[in-house]
Fold:
Amino acid sequence: MINHNLAFRFRPDVPAETADALLAELATFPERYPAMRDFALGRNISTRDSTFTHAFSVRFDSEADLRAYLESDSHERFVRERWRPIIEAHTIVSYETPDGETGRPRAPYGMEYARIEVPDLPRTVEFLQYHVGLQLEQHTDEYAYLRADIEHHAIEVISAPDRTAGHTSAVGYSVENADVLARLRASVVRAGHEVLELQERQRDFCEDGFAVRDPDGLIVELFTGFLEYAEPPLTELRPVDVVHPFLATAKYEESLEFYTKVLNFMPSDEIVGSTTFLRGEDRYHHSLALQNNKEHYVAHVCFAMKSFDHVMRARARALYKGEPIASDMVNHSASTSIAFYMHDPVHGPRFELCDRHRVFTPEEHETHRARRMPADPRNIDVWRPAADDWGRF
Structure:
């Protein structure tokens, strides 16, 4: 990992609005140069050295990525036309650190799949194809894999005829690299949890990984190098990503400790006494959510659709086929997504289909402070008119 740091000061005669415009342009760099990691920009607040007034830091996976940024036409044009005319002095330091080393422990990157045991495999596969928009890729009489985008699968369905309702037995998360995976494994061991082997079939779909049970017994699989297809399914009405599971737990504080202290998820927001939203390194507002409940179950799995129009088309299909809509058209306060939820217990958890989901910028990801919100339905759905309107849930 390459750390690239720049400290600078403006010429004394540069107008404030000109300086502010350049700072605002610098803040857009992570969007313009996708190889950038952990970008941060700020004013010098040191009381010991005021040589420079501002600084920014950024990380790259390799020296080649850094050179590609520095030598790009757009960067050289920025330096020539925008930077040099107004900067009086600057200094640059770049240095290498071991992969995965940052100022904080890294969490898993993002959710890849849920594994669900169902009583009627063909019926659930048909439901997931038509109502969620997943594409069936591989199946036997015992199991089926369905995908949303280029990742190998978003849902694995297991035939369990002895069950009367679907049961989510595992969730899978990708990890950024082997170093982060090793650090997570060491964290699990230090916390006294048993390191488990990945499910046998899952080992064929990734480079390396392990599994661990959370306090409720849900298996969490962590791995690198999850297999991908060259292109997404041709199906037009489909999700573009699986975003998060929502876990109900009777061991709320213990589960929070496990996911934040052992697996390093970071709190994004908290509904006090009720729900905590946790994010991973994909920077979704939440890659996982925990709800304080009297029992444990996976309450729902969230899929992001291409657009609000696609959400409404999926909703129309549910209404047309008479599929139960458990919660209709919710405008989520924290994650800013608009969604509806389908739920037939034979298929497992609720399936949430949303139009978008808040993604933090790299800087917000490092600096965001979780809001503590009262247990008010308007902190779940901004369309609720009053504090006692719990009707749609």
Remarks:
- The mean pLDDT is 94.
- The CA atoms of residues 376 and 387 lie 5 Å apart.
